[in-house]
Amino acid sequence: MSADEMAVTPSLAPIVESVAPGVVSISVSSQESLESPVFTDPFFRQFFDFLPHDVPLERFVEASGSGVIVDAEAGLVLTNAHVLEYAKSITVHLSDGRDLRAEIRGIDEETDIAALSIDAENLEGLAIGRSSGLRVGDYVLAVGNPFGLEGTVTLGIVSALGRTGLGIEGYEDFIQVDAAINPGNSGGALVNLRGELVGINTAIAGPTGGNVGIGFAIPIDMAMQVALQLVENGRVERGQIGIMIQDLDPDLEEAFGVADTGGVLIADIVPGSPADVAGLKPGDIVVAVDNDQVAGAAELRLAVSFKQPGATVRLGLIREGRPQSMRVTLGRAGGSQVEATRGGPSVPATGRLDGATLRSVPADEGSGGRRSGVLVEDLDAASPLSAAGVRPGDVIVEAGGKPVHSPQELDRRARQSDGPLILRIYRAGRAYFTTIG
Questions:
Q1: What angle do CA 172, 271, 365 make, to 5 degrees?
Q2: What tens digit of pLDDT does each residue of 23-52 get?
Q3: Which of 306, 361, 369, 429 is the most buried (most CB within 10 A)?
Q4: Which residues contact 102 (CB under 8 A, 6 or more apart)?
Q5: Is 372 a catalytic residue?
Q6: Are β-strands 285-289 and 264-269 bridged in parallel, bridged antiparallel, or unpaired?
Q7: 406 belongs to the catalytic site
Q8: Can you give the pLDDT at residue 233?
Q9: CA distances to 58, 354, 369 from 357, in Å
Q10: 3-state SS, residue 409
Q11: Which one is catalytic: 25, 66, 71, 82?
């Protein structure tokens, strides 16, 4: 679309007309198993001898969503992974009326991206833009098939960028928009006013399941990285450092002396992981990956996840207040769980630990090599530990940067510390830091 055309036509119609052929409707047929104790329990089953015993009870379900042609020559279509859940057959309906069978090239549930292939001539794909160039306040169009209404277009603005922590997907870096997004828009196109694809619409925020002015799209930069791996390998291989991380709150920033640096706190190192081999330590603060600053745990996780296993990354660190740089060769994504075991007598705590009942616990090689520590067996709501976010069942493994093996040793460290005391804690297999004043 030319500048002259925009000047003559004060309308978004030319943009919509250029985009529409590249947005498709996706129909999915799937099977769901009907599990019921009435049919599976031997006692109840005797009353239903007329039903086959070796045939699972199932029902067929049909669902619909949207998709985007991102490579017309290859017939490559992107959509959401959740659109294809339990898919047995997939039909892609084009804007020109053609219905085509589609094959799955790959699904990545962690980012909710799926790649399909269709075989047809004269396909039209969307121009791929750059989501990294978006700004809050930019106009965008959402194009898709909400409620089965094909070719629906809604207009809005980018209302936020980099939304994380929503629990919608494993890896989140959403574009938030106020363009109306409803059921059926999933997998559809988010385009800018140049008609370029900048996102894949994926989710709705609202109690009703319909549009309330907040919708989310997967940035196209991320979606295309995922699509490339799905096409080449059928799956996404992610690099992993082997660390447990947490965001820094103001108390931790003050305690670690990094109020002006930001970054991500390493709470634990997986034994034998790339981080362990490279020499990373709990208490290190990661401030950059390959010279790109990281402000939070979600950002660090994303930065590493799209690096291939075997790749080497340079981490910028703050260790004991001093900047450092360290190279880490990534492994494959995976993890180990660390659980606490009980042992030793219960001890009521006093002083800064008042209101807590503590117990020493030994190292447990069977649960991932957890270090010995102090189990918080019980805790009053008024306890300083409770105010610091500690819960019953937590295991305190370090105080003031040094290991603790007994309630008496923990109490001694607490009494010897004049300022905020940094505690490292295990909870449900994960480590994190907190402070008590």
A1: 120
A2: 999 999 876 555 555 555 555 545 555 555
A3: 361
A4: 26, 77, 90, 91, 92, 116, 117, 118
A5: no
A6: antiparallel
A7: no
A8: 86
A9: 52, 9, 24
A10: helix
A11: 82
